[in-house]
Give the backbone structure.
Amino acid sequence: MEVGKKRSLEDTSGEAPNKKTKKQWQVPKKNYSSAPSINPGDAGVWATCDMHKEGLCTNELKSFFDEYATSLYGDAIAKDTAIMDQSDVTNNDIEAEINREVQGIRTPSQSPLFTPVKIDVQCVLFFKTREPVEPVSFVQRICADALVNATTRKTRHVKRLTPMTRMGKATEKSLEEVAKAVLAPVFHQDAPSQKFAIRTTIRNHHTMKRDDIIKRVADLVGGRHKVDLTNYDHLIMVDIYRNILGMSVVGSDFEKLKRFNLAELHESAPKSEAP
């Protein structure tokens, strides 16, 4: 009985004698919390693209935006880089800095000018921006150049660009907070009486209604300014995707610039006649 019992215990151990077990490698978990996100107070640019081309369009726009930013803000970018480099030298411990470089874990001293943020909406992209980039003037310049040089096309999959001066949550409270911040420099602070229109874009959102948004924004503009849907001085843009809200104020050239649709601007170029 003793021998049988011992053999039974050995058999149920689940392992053959002297058999080496394979080493179990642990795969590091992805840290999704570090992925870029849109936060209240951010600024940036919405972009629409061809269906199923979100990845290609993101890479395309990143290079395109960086190129434009260098030409528009070159001096400011160079100044920022010089200041940050000097700060690294004077404030960081030299030995610790060397160790970080050797270990390959040195982090950038500042965020990039354009940070793509993944949005769970088909054919829609978002690029978060930082100073010195000002989204409205940046997009207007891109589209104005495209209008003049329509035959020179540097993007394949990009359709419309929509600048956003300030972002927030898609709630009534946040709408009011964002509107006050965005509208003040244009319509308040002793600004003269102006004509305005409001344009809303809403996708995958069912809480706030279009008419309610327009009425609330118009009230915040103030009674001194008049609504004019065709000959406006300024167009207030309110874009809502899912639970994200953004707002900006653009100029009267919005229609002339094909509503900031790069694809249409390039298509408007006169076709060369065949010989």
In short: The first strand starts at residue 43 and ends at 49. The radius of gyration is 27 Å.
